[in-house]
Amino acid sequence: MSSSKPGCRNIIPQSSEPTCRQAPSSLPTPRWLFFSTPSAFPFFSTLPSREEKRPRRDFHALHRLNRRYRVLAFLDPSEPKHDLLKRFSFSLLASRHRDFIPVFRSGLPDLFTTIEDDVSSKGKANFNNIADGMYFNFVFRLICGKDPSDAKIRSEGPNIFSKWLFLQLSPLMTLGLSMLPNFIEDLLLHTFPLPPFLVKSDYNKLYKAFYESASSVLDEGERMGINRDEACHNLVFLAGFSTFGGMKVLFPPLIKWVGLAGEKLHRELADEIRTVVKAEGGVTFAALDKMALTKSVVYEALRIAPPVPFQYGKAREDMVIHSHDAAFEIKKGEMIFGYQPFATKDPKVFENPEEFVAHRFMGEGEKLLKYVYWSNGRETDNPTAENKQCSGKDLVVLISKLMLVEIFLRYDTFEVESGTMLLGSAVLFKSLTKSSYT
User: Fold this and answer.
1) Which of 3, 37, 69, 96 is found 20 to 30 A from 176 (Cα to Cα)?
2) Where are its TM segments located (predicted)?
3) Which residues are CB-neighbours of 102 under 8 A, at least 6 positions away?
4) φ and ψ at 398, to 5 degrees?
5) Domain boundaries defined on the chain
6) Which of 29-33, 93-97, 172-176 shows the highest mean pLDDT?
7) CA gyration radius, the chain
8) pLDDT in tens, 107-126
9) The pLDDT value given to residue 44
10) How does the average pLDDT of the chain come out, rounded?
11) Are the C-beta atoms of 189 and 171 separated by less than 8 Å?
């Protein structure tokens, strides 16, 4: 990029592949889109360099639903509430640690029974649609300690969360309709925020369900000094956006890539998983930690298809961003937008970066984990109250491993058909070969 362009000034000669380009006009305060290499991407988790004090325009509708409380995701680490609310999220995760494995696994038998029935009767099973109920049940049971059917929300939860997520994420979505001109889709989804009244009554149902059912969590929030109402709005966001929404974009690509890898990888995963589970006497934290190939497969899925590919930050001081062989001068106040797959598919770091390589992070390959950024930080780093790294980083990796463990305890191999949907991958199961493992 020529140094004559405003907003992105090349101060060291760059390679043929540009790192910094003009932003699309649909972005808030469009100035520059920063195409990041692994050496440059840490900007998005470098606290002295970037800030997030203002609500993102695309998500502004949220603030009209939750009495204008700014939830943790929209706070800058320099703000006092960030530390408090991040510690609240850590407290919740710590208190539920023993429940992670049993609560998650308890919902999987019904999920796979439904998938098997659909494959048998229809020839295919839509994983994305079927799994929503399991996601919501897991979130609600984990946080509230009860089944949604025992609360007023009952079976409405998945649909309500999905509508609420659509309102928040529509600027990033594409309908994929060939008969609909792009400019009409842009006008409908990418130009103006969708009005919050569309989901206000549904959001209130969610709020009431968590307010009534998660009393022990909210009690802890109050003991920490958080207003009970504010704690509940943060809980709804954590449950709906971060966890339910996170699983919707986490599991389909994981299953897609493993399914497409074929029977050889399936045999290797099945052998490892069944051997370790038998030796450890069950599916435990210790057992999961010993599954080197399973862990590598999870990290590779997070590398090749990060659940949240878009990140942004506003420079709070003049700074220089470095790539492998170039440097760019950024001025205070300029918005920087990062597309994570450019970093996690850098051919200077990852061999065959566009390919799914199941063994990539085994042995010496573990050293490459520092270039995996899906959690808004390096995989080798840990979330703290002072940074913006995902509080549930370790839980995401855990439930990804659990999904693979459950699949290969039940099945020897499976076939999938993949596609795209509004945001992320769509996966259809075409066949499942049951395991004789006991």
Assistant:
1) 37
2) none
3) none
4) -60, -50
5) 9-434
6) 93-97
7) 22
8) 999 999 999 999 999 999 99
9) 56
10) 85
11) yes
* CB 317 within 8 Å of CB 48: yes
Residue 435 tokens, joined: 């395991």
- b/e sequence 139-169, b meaning 16+ C-beta within 10 Å: bbbbbbbeebeebebeeebbebbbebbbbbb
- The region, left, alpha or beta by phi > 0 then psi within -120 to 50, assigned to residue 360 is alpha
**How many Å separate Cα 37 from the centre of its chain?**
20
| 27-37 as b/e: b if 16+ CB within 10 A | beeebbbbbbb
414 backbone dihedrals φ, ψ, rounded to 5°? -155, 160
Residue whose structure tokens are 């085994």: 362
Q: For the structural domain made of 9-434, what CATH number should be given? A: 1.10.630.10
Residue 398: in which H helix or E strand, if any? Answer: helix 393-410
Q: How many residues does the chain have?
A: 438
Whether 390 has a binding-site annotation, put simply, is: yes
The mean pLDDT value for 273-280 works out to: 98
What's the rounded Cα separation, in Å, for the pair 35 and 341? 9
- Give CA–CA dist 320/331, Å, rounded: 9
The residue type at 232: C
Q: Identify any residues that bridge with 32 across adjacent strands, giving them in sequence order.
A: 22, 336
- Percentages helix, strand, coil for the chain, rounded to the nearest 5? 55, 15, 35
pTM: 0.87
